[in-house]
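hi! just following up on the protien thing from before. the input was this:
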Amino acid sequence: MNKILVSIVVMFLAVLCSNHVYATDVRPYLEAHVGAVFSADSNLGTDKVTYDPGLVAGGALGLDFEFLRIEANIDYRRADISKVSSNNVNSDLQLLSYMVNGHLVAPLQFPVKPYLLGGVGFATAFVSDFAGSSSSKQSNTRFSYEVGAGVGYEIKRNVTLDINYRYLGVSDFDFNGTRFSYSANNVLFGVRYSY
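and the predicted 3d structure came back as:
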């Protein structure tokens, strides 16, 4: 399943770049966003890890080719771990993701513009008092990808309000030789300023 999604993202970005990279109206932009993260249950060896809803916040620096946006994106996610199997725990998962994303924007001559997005990059997980470790904090970095959709509302030529959904998938982390899966659904609200 992961290989299929990654292939879709790569083909999506290739098509975007080939069709729109020579657009004449190119505007750099900055974006800030915040929202909610709903982490799927994780597998920690033979145990199941469940989470409370968490917070995601981040930003992006990119280029707007009118019907295509390409950006470098960094997001921070934090979710409390509610249970490991049937045991209550006092811990949390923090995740930093570093992505290169492409957005295919609908060619509409209206202020409201829906879009599809996809991207690839890396994610670093930070955990504490976790997996029976005596260490107070551990980290591990793995390949990640995201796909989603959203809509922007251009309130001025250079200011856009944005809402989007993103699914984040990450290759299994490794903590003390124990494989740890992670994926999450994210809902983000943001503001984008174009120069």
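The mean pLDDT is 87.
The CA atoms of residues 62 and 71 lie 4 Å apart.
cheers
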